[in-house]
Amino acid sequence: MIDALAATPAITRRADYSPPDWLVPDLDLDFDLAPERTRVHAALSVTRNGVHDRPLRLDGDGVVALAVRVDGVDTPWRMDGPALVVDLPGDAHVVETEVEIAPERNTQLMGLYASGGILCTQCEAEGFRRITFFPDRPDVLTRYRVRMAADKARYPVLLANGDPVASGEGENGRHWAEWHDPFPKPCYLFALVAGDLAANRATFTTASGREVQLGIWVREKDLPKTDHALHALKLSMAWDERVYGREYDLDVFNIVAVDDFNFGAMENKGLNIFNSRYILADPDTATDYD
């Protein structure tokens, strides 16, 4: 343990940069959520970046491939350390993988983990590779479509980046929700939250007249401590428009407070995740330090 803590971090030099061999314009993720075992199906639409014959390398960390398919057909693959490697003959393919992870045993609090009955993610800087195999680097920009299924009594709220596009009831007390983010982003900005949460809701009208649905999601008992955060969110969105001319481009903006979040906050687009101490404020007792 001491040796691991004292190990010298790997050095990444800007002079050694090279563009990614493969791009991933679109990614479909399907989560079958449970704290003890979550199955993740990923469908990557990949395109060769430039003229080369190098294979597709997908980063992984603590994930095991259960299946790998290319264009719907089981295909040979190999592991190179923690990376999954697939030889692809053409310039564009759909690569599917299936993995299983255990959020309740994820003590690193990176990737998908359990926190006080909530499932949530932290992907910056390299946490996404702990969820599924992917080229986990910030210059691979991808549009995400996410489907989540979970026990409805345990996880009645299912949130992800983007806008909600569909939801419904499943079998055996389960339900599902689908979210779509049409704007390309790096995987370190991916976010997912599932839990028994309540929302302080409001709306914000953008400069062009669009109405954005806002939500501060917390445990029911903490709702009285969210008014300040909701007011600050409105002010910050107006400030972005006034100072930078940047209008929010999604229809929904959610913030979730998590007790065990391992950073102060993570500004995932459309689904910010904060440590509770930086969101909750009792108007009668809060100080400037709070």
**Quaternary organization:** single chain
Query: Strand order across the biggest sheet?
Result: 5-4-8-2-1-11-14-13
CATH superfamily membership of the largest domain, which one? tricorn interacting facor f3 domain
In angstroms, what separates the terminal alpha carbons? 35 Å
Number of domains as seen in the coordinates: 2
> Helix count?
2
The dominant shape is globular
Radius of gyration: 20 Å
Largest sheet: 8 strands, mixed
Task: Just name the CATH architecture of the largest domain.
Answer: Sandwich
How much strand? Answer: 35-45%
Order of helices and strands: HEEEEEEEEEEEEEEEEEHEEE
The CATH topology of the largest domain is Immunoglobulin-like
| Strand element count | 20
Describe the structure.
There is one protein chain. With 290 residues, the chain is mainly beta. It folds into 2 domains: 22-109 and 133-195, Sandwich (Immunoglobulin-like), CATH 2.60.40; 198-278, Zincin-like, CATH 3.30.2010.30. Helices cover 8% and strands 44% of the residues. The chain contains 2 helices and 20 strands. The strands form 4 sheets. An 8-stranded mixed beta sheet has the order 5-4-8-2-1-11-14-13, with no helix packed on it. A 5-stranded mixed beta sheet has the order 16-17-18-20-19, with helices on one face. A hairpin with a 2-residue loop joins strand 4 (64-70) and strand 5. The longest helix has 18 residues, at 227-244. The chain is globular and about 65 Å long. The chain starts with a helix and ends in a 15-residue tail after the last strand. Residues 1-5 have low confidence and may be disordered.
